[in-house]
Write a structure and sequence with these properties.
single chain; about 100 residues; mainly alpha; Cytochrome Bc1 Complex, Chain D, domain 2; 6 helices; about 65% helix
Length: about 100
Amino acid sequence: MQKILLTCAALLTLASAASSSMAADIVAGKSRSAQCAACHGPTGRSVMPQAPNLAGQDEDYLAKQLRDFRSGARQDETMSVIAKALSDTEIDNLAAYFNDQK
């Protein structure tokens, strides 16, 4: 029984370490967000009435929306062009940055 518990603890530790190493980089997201600031504001609080606030939005939601713009599943003339230039890592970093904003 003790052997099973130790094995489970080791697996949980490894899984936690793996997810931490794959976590999005908020600092990189901030540096990549300069282009977003024109419409969504420097911290994700919109400066234009037609652009949504991104600050504090769910990270997974933001990443999905950017991927949808990139793939064409969601259409917007401006966002589709911007999202096409983003890698998966950049999308994850941007989503983490805007999620972190209050």
